[in-house]
Design goal:
The protein has two domains: about 5-45 and about 235-675, YVTN repeat-like/Quinoprotein amine dehydrogenase (Methylamine Dehydrogenase, Chain H); about 50-230, Jelly Rolls (Sandwich). Helix content is about 10%, strand content about 35%. The protein has six helices and 50 strands. The strands form twelve sheets. It has a seven-stranded mixed sheet. Strands 3, 4, 7, 9, 11, 12 and 14 form a seven-stranded antiparallel sheet that branches. Strands 8-15-10-13 form a four-stranded antiparallel sheet. A hairpin with a 5-residue loop joins strand 20 and strand 21.
C-alpha cells in the first residue's frame, strides 16, 4: 500500500472533543454527545503565539518603490503566509529540457513588476486566499497538461533580517531562489514536501519559485516560521503545559481536572486552573498480567517489577518538573516492559504502531473515573486521583496503521473495538460480552477501520455503529447488521449523530449519507438511507487522494465536511445540495514520512457559541460563522517549534479544541494550551 495511506491511521478519532459545561455530563469523551457542539460556550475569537521575526514580515506582488521603502499598509503577514504573488506562465518546456534549464533568460535575477512583459507573456498579480499558489486555477488548466513551467514571484520584507524556516509543499518539480541565489531545488517530481531555511536580508527580499506541470495537480504551498522558538509574542494564552511525551488524542475536562494521553501508554492529569501536572500514570502489558502468570514466571516478573518501579519514578519525576529529562527514559522503560511480557506469552506480542503512535484513542470519563484505551491493546481505568482500578488486554492482530478507535461509554458498558468488539463493566473491568470483528467476505482488505463508532437507537434498543458497516446490539453484543458497502466506504471519518440520525462522510470520491437504523426484529435491523448528497473537491489542490479524516459537524440542517487538504464543503442536508465549498487558509504541511502530520486538516469542525472552529495541522485555525455562505471572522496561529525525528519543526496539531465557558483547551503533539481572550 502507498505510504500516503498512512494518513488514515490518524482518522478523526484524534480529533475528538469533549462536551463540557458547568457540570460533568454523564460521559465525557469522543465528541462528548457525538456531535462536537458547545452552544453554551463563550469562546475566544482571537489568540496567537507567533515569532517576532514573522510579525515583522510583509509581502507584496508590486515592486517596492525603493530598496529602503517601508511596507505599505495591509501587506503585513503575521500568519507567515504570503498571499500576493506575480505569476507568469505557462511557458512550454521542450521534451529534452529540464526544470534546471533556463526558461527565461537569466531567470534567477528577474525582478518583475505587475504587467511587465516576459516574451509574449506578462507577469500577472494574483492574490490567493490560502498558502497555495494554485497554477491550475490561475491558468484554468483542467485535466492533462502539456509539459510546461510557471513562475511565482513576491517581494518579502523582513524587519530584523533573521533567517526563516519554510514549510514547502509542491506537486511535480520545484525550484526556489532568494535574492537571485538558489534556496531549494527538487527535480524528482511527485507530491512532495520539504522544510528548508531562508537566509533573508533585512529589508526587501526577492523570492522566485519555478514549478513544472504535473499529472493532474499543479501548485506550491509555502508558509514561513521564525528562527527562535523563544522569541515569540503571545496573546490570549492563559497557560501552556509541556506534556511529558508526545500524544495525539484530544484532552477531556472532568471537573477541575484535564486528562490527556501520552506515548506509549501514559495518562497525564493536570489542574485546569493553571495547567500544572498533578500526576502521570503509565500502563503496559505488565499491568494486565494475571496472578497465575506472575506465579508461573516468578523470575521474569521479579526483573519486571524493578523496571516498573523505575517507570513509576520517571512518572513521579515528571510531576516534579523534570519532564524534559524523562521523555526518553519513560519510553525506553515502557518498551522494555512490553518486550519482556512478550516472552511470557505470545498474546503480549508487540502491537502495530500507527502514525499517531498508540495514543490516538481519546479517554472517556463518567465523572468519577477515567477510561483509556491504547493502540497497544491495553485498556486501563483510573479514579480521578490516579489510582488504578483495573486493566484489560484486547487482542490486537497486525493492522496497518495501528488501532485508533476511541472507547464508547454507553448503556452502562465500556465498548472497546480493536481485534474484536468487547464490552467491559466500567466498575470492575469484567468482560460482559465479546463479538468477533466483522470481515467482509469478498474483500477482506477493507475490514479495518480507524474512525470511532457512534451509538444509535434501534427501536427500544441501543446499537453501536462502526465504520466496517457493522451494527452491534449493546445489550448482548449481537451483530444485528453488517455490510461494508451499504453505507459507503468511510473507514476514517467517524459519523456524528443528531436526534437519532447519523451523518457520515464518504471517503475518496466525496459525498455524505444520512441514515438511521430500523427497530430490531429477529435479531436483525435494516439501516435506512434517508438522504445522500454527492460532491467532490477535485478542482482544488490536493496532496494525494482527497481523504476525509475529520468527522463532520451537523448544525441547523447544514453538514460541515473538511477533507485532508483543507477544502470545506457545506451541505444542506434538507435540500440535498452543496451550499458552498471553500479552500481554507490553514497553512497545511504534509509529507509521506511526516507521521501524524500526514493527516492534514484532520481536526473535526467544532461549534462553540455562535462560531465554527476549524484547525489545520500546523497550528493555524480559522473561525467562521455558520450558514450557507462563507464568512471568516478570524485566523489564529500557534507557532511552536518541537524536536522531530530528523530536525526541529513546527508542532503538529491534529486534535479538536475543547470548550468550557470562555476558555478553549487545545492539544498539540507536545503542548497543551489554555486559551481565553482577554476583554
Amino acid at each position: 500500500m502507498h505510504l500516503k495511506k498512512a494518513v488514515l491511521s490518524i482518522g478523526v478519532l484524534v480529533c475528538a472533543t469533549s462536551a463540557v459545561g458547568a457540570e460533568v455530563p454523564a460521559a465525557v469523551g469522543w465528541r462528548g454527545d457525538g456531535n462536537g457542539r458547545y452552544p453554551q460556550a463563550t469562546p475566544p475569537l482571537h489568540w496567537s503565539r507567533v515569532s517576532k521575526s514573522v510579525l515583522g514580515l510583509a509581502a507584496q506582488a508590486a515592486k517596492p518603490k525603493s530598496p529602503d521603502a517601508a511596507p505599505a499598509a495591509g501587506t503585513q503577514i503575521p500568519d507567515g503566509t504570503i498571499h500576493k504573488w506575480l505569476v507568469l506562465g505557462p511557458l512550454p518546456l521542450a521534451d529534452d529540457k529540464k526544470l534546471d534549464d533556463e526558461t527565461l533568460a537569466n531567470e534567477a535575477a528577474v525582478s518583475p513588476d505587475e504587467n511587465e512583459k516576459a516574451g509574449e507573456l506578462a507577469w500577472k498579480a494574483v492574490a490567493f486566499d490560502d498558502n497555495a499558489v494554485d497554477f491550475n486555477g490561475t491558468f484554468n488548466l483542467p485535466g492533462k497538461k502539456p509539459k510546461a513551467v510557471a513562475y511565482a514571484h513576491t517581494y518579502l520584507y523582513s524587519a530584523d533580517g533573521k533567517p526563516l524556516s519554510v514549510n514547502f509543499m509542491y506537486e511535480s518539480f520545484a525550484k526556489v531562489w532568494l535574492n537571485g541565489k538558489p534556496a531549494f531545488s527538487h527535480p524528482n517530481g511527485g507530491n512532495l514536501a520539504n522544510r528548508f531555511n531562508l537566509a533573508v536580508a533585512k529589508g526587501w527580499n526577492r523570492i522566485l519559485i519555478k514549478s513544472q506541470t504535473s499529472v493532474d495537480n499543479w501548485y506550491v504551498r509555502a508558509t514561513l516560521f521564525g528562527p527562535d522558538p523563544n522569541e515569540v509574542d503571545a496573546k490570549g494564552i492563559v497557560w501552556i503545559t509541556r506534556m511529558p511525551n508526545l500524544g495525539y488524542s484530544s484532552p477531556i475536562v472532568v471537573g477541575d481536572k484535564i486528562f490527556a494521553t501520552i506515548e506509549t501508554g501514559g495518562l497525564c492529569c493536570m489542574n485546569k486552573a493553571d495547567g500544572k501536572i498533578l500526576w502521570v500514570r503509565s500502563a503496559t502489558y505488565y499491568d494486565t498480567a494475571s496472578d497465575e502468570e506472575r506465579k508461573a514466571n516468578a523470575q521474569a516478573f521479579t526483573e519486571m517489577d524493578a523496571l516498573a518501579a523505575q517507570l513509576k519514578q520517571a512518572d513521579d519525576a515528571t510531576v516534579n518538573g523534570a519532564a524534559k529529562k524523562t521523555d526518553d527514559e519513560r519510553a525506553k522503560l515502557e518498551d522494555q516492559l512490553n518486550k519482556a511480557m512478550a516472552k511470557v506469552d505470545k498474546k503480549y506480542r508487540p502491537a502495530p504502531r500507527g502514525e499517531a503512535g498508540f495514543t490516538a484513542p481519546n479517554p472517556v470519563s463518567d465523572g468519577e473515573r477515567v477510561y483509556v484505551a491504547y493502540g497497544t491493546g491495553v485498556t486501563v481505568c483510573y479514579d480521578l486521583a490516579g489510582n488504578k482500578k483495573w486493566s484489560d488486554l484486547s487482542s490486537h492482530p497486525d493492522l496497518e496503521h495501528g488501532y485508533n478507535s476511541s472507547p464508547l461509554l454507553a448503556d452502562g458498558k465500556l465498548i472497546i473495538y480493536m481485534g474484536e468488539c468487547r464490552a467491559l463493566d466500567p466498575k470492575t473491568g469484567k468482560l460482559l460480552w465479546e463479538s468477533p470483528r466483522f470481515l467482509p467476505e469478498n474483500n477482506r482488505t477493507y475490514y479495518h477501520f480507524h474512525g470511532s463508532g457512534c451509538v444509535l437507537s434501534a427501536g427500544t434498543e441501543k446499537v453501536a455503529f462502526f465504520l466496517n458497516g457493522e451494527f452491534v446490539r449493546l445489550s448482548d453484543g449481537k451483530n444485528v447488521y453488517a455490510d461494508f458497502w451499504k453505507l459507503g466506504d468511510s473507514r476514517y471519518s467517524a459519523p456524528v449523530v443528531d436526534r437519532g440520525m447519523a451523518y457520515k462522510v464518504q471517503s475518496g470520491t466525496g459525498g455524505v449519507v444520512a441514515f438511521k437504523p430500523s427497530a430490531i426484529s429477529g435479531d436483525k435491523l435494516t439501516p435506512e438511507i434517508v438522504n445522500e448528497v454527492k460532491f467532490d473537491t477535485n478542482k482544488y489542490p490536493k496532496f494525494y487522494l482527497k481523504f476525509y479524516n475529520a468527522a463532520p459537524l451537523y448544525h441547523e440542517g447544514l453538514l460541515y465536511c473538511i477533507d485532508e487538504d483543507a477544502v470545506l464543503t457545506v451541505v444542506d442536508m434538507e435540500k440535498g445540495e452543496v451550499a458552498y465549498q471553500k479552500l481554507l487558509d490553514l497553512d497545511l504541511y504534509m509529507h509521506h514520512n511526516f507521521g501524524a502530520g500526514r493527516g492534514g486538516a484532520a481536526a473535526s469542525p467544532t461549534l462553540a457559541g455562535k462560531y465554527i472552529y476549524l484547525f489545520g495541522n500546523q497550528g493555524s485555525s480559522v473561525v467562521i460563522e455558520p450558514g450557507r455562505t462563507f464568512k471568516q471572522v478570524a485566523k489564529n496561529r500557534l507557532e511552536q517549534i518541537v524536536h522531530g525525528a530528523y530536525s526541529d519543526r513546527q508542532e503538529v496539531t491534529i486534535t479538536c479544541p475543547v470548550f468550557e465557558g470562555a476558555r478553549m483547551y487545545y492539544r498539540g503533539e507536545q503542548y497543551l494550551y489554555c486559551i481565553e481572550e482577554k476583554k
